[in-house]
Specification:
It contains 45 helices and 35 strands. It is α+β, with helices and mostly antiparallel strands.
Length: 1479
């Protein structure tokens, strides 16, 4: 029979079967059954090893499930077990059993019918190459932990070597529930009732042999006809009995009854080498059992064939089996046969490169073969592996299209390749992981599975960019290498293992290395495009659209032309067109069509052709010539282009998505069947889209060459105005369907978990978690979300949903789904533009905001492309709803973590959409009619009669929506827009707005203020305050304005000229003052300083001084309450505040240079201030008062300066870690001065004295201070004449001290050495002796009192002698004169110094120049302390009498008497002369 086959179906991968988590279970083995070698390499191998990958599926009836097992030839000791259920979600995990020794290429899994224990629903039989058979009682997957040991109590282990001879190898094995059957090389067959009875019980093992009697052990040779080795075996159940079919290597076929252990059939086939045996399902109608044998013909060992036999059976008094003489032989010309399954009417043959089916028939000459396309062909086509030039064509076309913007070529090409790579069915986790590993990207496979679609794109794109850079040719080369490697790994990780066949539903599937798939039948369009154009006449739906046979012939010829045309650039161009629609490039889809048609016409696409491009050019030119001849022939056959165009229009109706009225109420759940429906939808939509695209290219090309093929002007007009728009509509609809089928869903956001999921029946935490895990994955596309909202109209729902349905069922369900997408549940949508709104609502409801946006944008772009004179705004408000929904989508995306640029763009676009929505035709009625459960934010208002009232309400709603999403920009714009509508809306008495115009405007202006403030637009915020007509709202906003400025550190703006504070100065000041009183004094910025700057800016000097004084008072009060008295920083801050207050008052006229005291009377000298302000009166200074008796009620500059001085003293003390606070008690200032002196703060001490003491009190305090300094000098008795210019005292006078600025903040450590102390005493004594003339006397007396033997400094003695310029005055003079010093000497026993001083004075008196003698002779001009002199003489005599210093005293006495005698003589002479003169 012929080898040609007809394409009848396609493989549909079950998306997600490549990402299972395998739970590894190590199967233990008892020591008695373990062969000698532990690693299995040297163990005795008595059973056939696994040399090929093997897999099979066991179909469970109740409950419905598919148990799939796999054994990999590279891991022969591992068996994978997977359970699938068509009506349930794809399981997350499977079981991976690890056995101690390699397995035979056999496993049998079935329902547990032995114990019927619900804990162990399944049984698994396997045999190792060492002859150990295992029976595993399988629990549910959830009962096992990863990397665990399989429970020993769930395991039966049997070493068949204990029952058979080791010298006869096992050649075949099969099993059924409760029985394991093995065949050996000597042709013997033995069955073990493993798991049913004990191994030692009678009947556990039976040998199947010809003679009757008790069965023997296998160590004995059977007495019967010798047969060849057992080649293959299979067990089949027939009428409640189990039969084992045995194929021997010599062609003998035997059937054994397992219940009676007797042979019931024997037949021999000769002339070939037999390999495998498959037994089909028995046919009760014909009483036949189909059976197929794989063999190789003796003449050609390379050629495999399958012989299909029929065994007749008759169950009467005894079982009778006979072989039907008719044999159906099937030649397998190419490829290796991997698996065969036989159903009631078909045999399915799986080869390594295709799946073929044949009908079971007795007419062996007319058996037609049907082939089914495998996924390898689809993946190769998608990854541009079918032709080595397809990827180059993409670059060439892209360069031609983007000739004006070359920088867009590289990202556009990468986008195409990325989309192809991540297509459902193309993307495979293991293949991608292996490919990345080849590029040294060792990402763990679990991490790769966890990546979202966007994450995968970034990972692959970064690899490509890192590999070659950004040059477009390098990018293309890199992508070609990457896709080639990926395709190789895809094929490697998706190697074909076996068939999955469900005879009850005629479902057929494929088990691959790491995935599972199902086959479906072809859609009508696929039979035409991918099958044969001769099938056109067999398609009833298409023939009904044509008038006669001629039109059918025209269509056949036309399809051949279009297919020939599309083979050149059609598929490549369709990828570019699809990408241009989704990514919205700089060039329109119409320009792409024009560019591609131009390439096809001219035969070139880029300049500077190389050798390959010259070949392509010749190919295109050849195509043009052939197309011209074909069109001429077509024109001659039809005799007119009008008839051809009518045929084209008829065929295009065939491409329109079918409208199916869905009357059923069966909800579609999320399960494996849903995955198959979605992928089938993608496959069909792709073919439909490409077919329509090919016709669009063909018609565009036809128009361009119309003159050459006799195309009239009317024909061209019909093409452009009727057919092309129809084609564009069809392309758009299938493109949308394709978009849903391949676009990955967006990951779930936090908001999505709070949304309503009732339509998905996800009402528990587990369901939400599962839903969250699916969203964002490449294999979970938008179509899944839409499919869950479909109510199916298929007639094969119900119980068949529990099983995989037949091939045609998927097509029916796919048609339902497509009809629902395009036409809706009841088919009531007039066009897809209106239907797109409903779909966008569904997407939005489930968090697919970007997808909903893309859908609406594509619908909008398609609407704009329609050449019509009508407005794009429908009268029913559909356009407004689209804009409204689009705005909601854009706004929701802002919350999904977009970067700044994208976020800003989305916000601006959303604002534009909402404004457009509010102004469209029928906006009010359409938008108010939207119900709350559509998924988008609900308007929540109705009844707007006028346009202004509607816009006011809508703008307020939009404002609140933007505010909810914390997008102040949009909220501010809509608040301003609402303000424009207030006046007009309030004129309508029936407006739904509550409140007056003032209240409404005030509320809106308050919102504008808040949004502007959030945006940092302080000027706009202030303008909103000024514009607010509601006074209460205005002042609330003003307070908020000041608070925010303060918190944001922008409060200084109030002191600039940027804000016109006309009319609000007092309010601003009140709010600042209120805020200052209630704010932390240490907060930044300081509000008191701000108030000071604010008032200075307003030229209000007194108020500025008042706030700085309040600041100083707050600092002192809080420092006291918080025990901060010793804080030098706070004291310095107080000094700065007082200094600023003083400086401010100096700018005021002296008559008004005062401020009010603080309300709480908390000034430094607050106890002297009455709470009520009194009139300012002139000050009276009393020279006798130490402290003022009464302070005036107001605070003027002098009082501020006084406080400044006291604070300065406190600050100076804090620098030396001395705490002091002015108490206001009597003597406090004296104590302060003493404290300052004790800490060497002399300047500050004298400043206090001169500032606060007058008259006698000042003299008394000066005496105290200098006495204290003198006492400190007594610590060092070295008389020094060292003079140091040290420091400078604060400027002072007898009347006042004027303080400017702050004191020096740095601290100088006082000098404690003697020279410094004496120098300090000298400096201050010389400075302040003018205030009190007796200060030298006080100092000298203090020194002598402290140490009578001290040597007075020379400079101090000189102070007593100062002013005696006229020596004739004797010892008299000012208060500190030589006589005073002489008296001190005498009083403190310093007789020598006293004598010398007296002698010095007398000598000075006597040594007057002759010119001055006349002055000396004046009466009473000279005076000497004679009384003190007498005391001195007396003391000297007393010392002599007592015998103390007799010699020295006598000498002093003599000198003193001699000098006195001379002095008295001189006085006598002067007296006589004076008498003489007077007479």
């Amino acid at each position: 029979m012929g080898t040609d086959s007809t394409l009848a179906g396609k493989e549909v991968p079950i998306i997600g079967t490549d990402v299972f988590r395998w739970i590894e279970l190590s199967v233990p083995s008892s020591s008695s059954n373990i062969p000698t070698a532990v690693d299995g390499t040297n163990a005795t191998t008595i059973a056939p090893p696994t040399v090929d990958d093997r897999a099979s599926c066991f179909v469970l009836e109740d409950p419905s499930a598919y148990l799939i097992w796999r054994i990999h030839k590279l891991q022969p000791h591992v068996l994978e077990l997977l359970e699938l259920n068509a009506s349930k979600e794809l399981p997350k995990a499977g079981l991976r059993f690890i056995f101690p020794y390699p397995l035979c290429p056999f496993a049998f899994v079935c329902k547990n019918e032995i114990s019927r224990n619900s804990r162990f629903p399944y049984l698994l039989y396997v045999l190792t190459v060492t002859g150990v058979a295992y029976l595993l009682k399988i629990r549910n997957v959830s009962a096992y932990a990863s990397s665990a040991l399989f429970p020993a109590e769930d395991l039966f282990e049997l070493n068949v070597c204990d029952y058979v001879s080791n010298h006869v190898p096992i050649t075949a094995v099969t099993a059924t529930a409760g029985c394991v059957v093995i065949g050996r090389s000597d042709g013997s067959v033995c069955c073990f009732r493993l798991g049913v009875i004990d191994t030692s019980a009678p009947g556990f093992v039976h040998e199947l042999r010809d003679e009757a009697g008790v069965s023997r052990l296998w160590g004995l040779m059977s007495r019967g006809k010798m047969v060849g080795a057992v080649q293959d075996m299979e067990i089949s159940e027939l009428h409640g009995k189990r039969f084992v079919f045995v194929l021997h290597s010599d062609g003998t076929l035997r059937i054994w009854d397992l219940s009676s252990h007797s042979r019931v059939f024997n037949h021999t086939v000769t002339g070939a080498t037999f390999r495998r045996l498959w037994v089909g399902q028995f046919d009760p109608d014909s009483s036949t059992i189909p059976l197929s044998i794989l063999y190789k013909h003796g003449l050609d060992e390379e050629l495999e064939m399958i012989s299909l036999h029929s065994i007749l059976y008759n169950f009467g008094e005894r079982n009778v089996f006979s072989m039907d003489p008719s044999v159906q032989n099937i030649t397998l010309e190419e490829g290796q046969c991997l698996d065969v399954k036989i159903t009631l009417d078909k045999i399915w043959i799986l080869k390594d490169d295709e799946l073929v089916s044949h009908m079971l028939t007795t007419n062996v000459e007319e058996v037609e073969a049907f082939s089914y396309a495998l996924q390898e062909e689809v993946v190769a086509d998608q990854l541009f592996q079918s032709s080595e030039h397809q990827a180059d064509e993409i670059l060439q076309i892209a360069c031609s299209i983007f000739s004006s913007s070359k920088e867009d070529v590289v990202p556009f090409i990468s986008s195409i390749f990325l989309r192809k790579l991540l297509l459902p069915g193309v993307h495979h986790n293991a293949a991608l992981h292996a490919t990345l590993a080849e590029y040294s990207r060792h990402l763990p496979e679990s991490d790769l599975q966890a990546l979202t679609a966007d994450g995968l794109k970034q990972e692959v794109l970064s690899l490509i960019e890192h590999e070659v850079g950004s040059e477009k040719l390098s990018i293309l080369h890199s992508w070609k290498c990457f896709l080639t490697r990926y395709f190789h790994n895809w094929c490697k990780n998706n190697a074909i293992y076996g068939l999955l066949v469900d005879s009850s539903t005629d479902a057929v599937g494929l088990i691959r290395k790491s995935s599972v798939s199902i086959f479906r039948s072809l859609e009508d369009i696929e039979r035409i495009v991918e099958g044969s154009s001769d099938e056109v006449g067999e398609l009833t739906g298409l023939v009904d659209l044509l008038d006669d046979d001629l039109e059918c012939e025209i269509l056949v010829e036309l399809l051949r032309c279009v297919m020939s045309f599309s083979q050149q650039l059609g598929k490549t161009a369709s990828s570019i067109f699809y990408e241009s629609v989704l990514t919205a490039p700089v060039i329109s889809s119409e320009d792409i069509v024009h560019c591609i048609v131009k390439i096809l016409e001219t035969g070139s696409c880029i300049s500077g052709p190389n050798e390959k491009e010259l070949i392509d050019h010749k190919s295109l030119r050849k195509l043009s010539a052939e197309m011209f001849l074909s069109l001429q022939s077509l024109y001659r056959k039809a005799s007119a282009w009008s008839r051809i165009l009518n045929v084209i229009q008829g065929f295009l109706k065939f491409l329109v998505p079918q409208k199916i009225i869905q009357n059923f109420d069966t909800e579609v759940s999320s399960n494996i069947s849903s995955s198959i429906i979605v992928h089938t939808t993608y496959q069909i939509s792709k073919v439909m889209f490409e077919s329509a695209w090919d016709f669009l290219l063909f018609l565009s090309y036809l128009v361009d060459i119309g003159g050459q093929v006799h195309l009239s002007h009317d024909d061209i007009t019909k093409i452009q105005l009727e057919i092309v728009p129809m084609l564009q509509e069809i392309i758009f609809e299938w493109l949308i369907i394709n978009f849903f089928a391949i676009t990955p869903s967006a990951p779930a956001t936090t908001e999505d978990f709070n949304s309503k999921l009732s339509s998905l029946h996800i009402d528990c935490n587990t369901g939400k978690q599962l839903w969250n895990e699916k969203l964002g994955r490449c294999d979970f596309t938008l179509a899944f979300i839409l499919l869950l909202n479909v109510r199916s109209s298929s007639t094969d729902h119900g119980h068949l949903l529990k099983r995989f349905p037949n091939m045609q069922s998927f097509i029916n369900r796919m048609r339902d789904f497509i009809s629902w997408i395009i036409w809706g549940q009841s088919g009531g949508s007039s066009n897809f533009l209106s239907r797109s709104i409903d779909l966008a609502f569904i997407l939005f409801k489930h968090g697919q905001y970007e997808a909903a946006e893309q859908l609406l944008m594509m619908a909008e772009a398609h609407l704009l492309k329609e050449k019509t004179s009508q407005s794009i705004q429908e009268s029913d408000g559909g356009w407004c709803i689209r804009q409204h929904l689009l705005g909601c989508c854009l706004l929701a995306q802002v919350q999904c973590g977009l970067h700044t640029t994208q976020k800003d763009n989305k916000v601006f676009d959303a604002i534009r959409c909402f404004f457009r929505s509010s102004s469209g035709n029928g906006a009010s009625e359409a938008l108010q009619s939207l119900s709350e459960d559509v998924g988008i934010p609900y308007l929540g208002f109705s009844g707007c009669a006028s346009t202004a009232a509607w816009k006011l309400q809508y703008y307020q709603w939009a404002m609140q929506l933007f505010e909810r999403y914390s997008i102040s920009e949009g909220a501010c714009q809509f608040a301003l827009a609402a303000l424009e509508q207030v006046d007009e809306a309030m004129k309508d008495e029936n407006n739904p707005v509550n409140g007056s115009i003032t209240t409404t405007r005030g509320r809106l202006w308050a919102n504008v203020f808040i949004f502007a403030l959030d945006l940092g637009r302080y000027y706009d915020a202030y303008c909103a305050i000024v514009s607010n007509p509601d006074e209460e709202s205005k002042y609330i906003c003003l307070r908020r304005f000041i608070i925010v400025l303060y918190e944001q550190g922008a409060i200084k703006i109030l002191c600039s000229n940027k804000l016109p504070l006309i009319g609000l100065v007092e309010k601003v000041e009140q709010e600042l003052a209120w805020k200052a009183e209630r704010s932390d004094i240490s907060a930044k910025p300081n509000l008191y300083k701000l108030l000071y700057a604010f008032q200075m800016h307003q030229h209000n000097w007194r108020r500025a001084a008042n706030y700085m004084y309040m600041y100083s008072t707050r600092l002192r009060t809080e420092a006291a309450s918080k025990d901060y008295q010793g804080s030098s920083l706070m004291l310095q801050e107080r000094l700065n505040a007082l200094s600023a207050a003083i400086n401010s008052l100096h700018l005021v006229h002296p008559a008004y240079a005062w401020i009010d005291p603080p309300a709480n009377g908390s000034s430094l000298l607050g106890e002297h201030y009455p709470s009520k302000k009194a009139k300012r009166i002139p000050e009276d200074h009393s020279d006798n008062d130490a402290e003022p008796e009464r302070w005036q009620s107001c605070i003027d500059v002098e009082k501020l300066e006084n406080e400044f001085v006291l604070t300065s003293a406190e600050y100076k003390l804090s620098l030396v870690n001395v705490k002091w606070t002015f108490s206001g008690k009597d003597g406090a200032l004296s104590d302060l001065a003493e404290l300052l002196v004790n800490n060497n703060l002399y300047d500050m001490a004298f400043t206090i004295l001169l500032r606060f003491f007058k008259g006698s009190a000042l003299k008394r305090e000066l005496e105290r201070v200098l006495s204290a300094i003198s006492l400190r000098c007594c610590l060092d008795k070295v008389e020094s004449t060292w003079v140091e210019e040290h420091g400078q005292l604060v400027t002072s006078s007898k009347l006042e001290m004027v303080v400017h600025g702050s004191p020096v903040t740095h601290h100088t450590t006082p000098q404690t050495d003697g020279s410094s102390c004496w120098a300090t005493l000298k400096i201050y004594l010389e400075k302040y002796k003018e205030f009190h003339g007796r200060l030298p006397v006080i100092v000298a007396e203090t020194l002598l009192r402290a140490d009578p033997q001290i040597e007075l400094p020379l400079w101090l003695v000189q102070l007593f002698k100062e002013g005696q310029k006229e020596r004739m005055s004797g010892m008299s003079g000012r208060e500190s004169n030589p006589a005073s010093l002489f008296q001190l000497y005498v009083s403190y026993g310093r007789y020598t110094e006293a004598t010398n001083l007296l002698l010095e004075c007398i000598q000075s008196f006597a040594s007057v120049r002759p010119a001055d003698i006349i002055r000396r002779k004046r009466s009473f001009a000279a005076w000497f302390p004679y009384t003190t002199i007498e005391r001195l003489l007396y003391q000297l005599e007393e010392l002599t009498r007592k015998g103390h210093m007799v010699e020295q005293c006598d000498k002093l006495k003599r000198m003193l008497l001699s000098s006195l005698q001379n002095h008295l003589k001189t006085l006598k002479v002067d007296s006589e002369d004076a008498i003489s003169v007077s007479s």
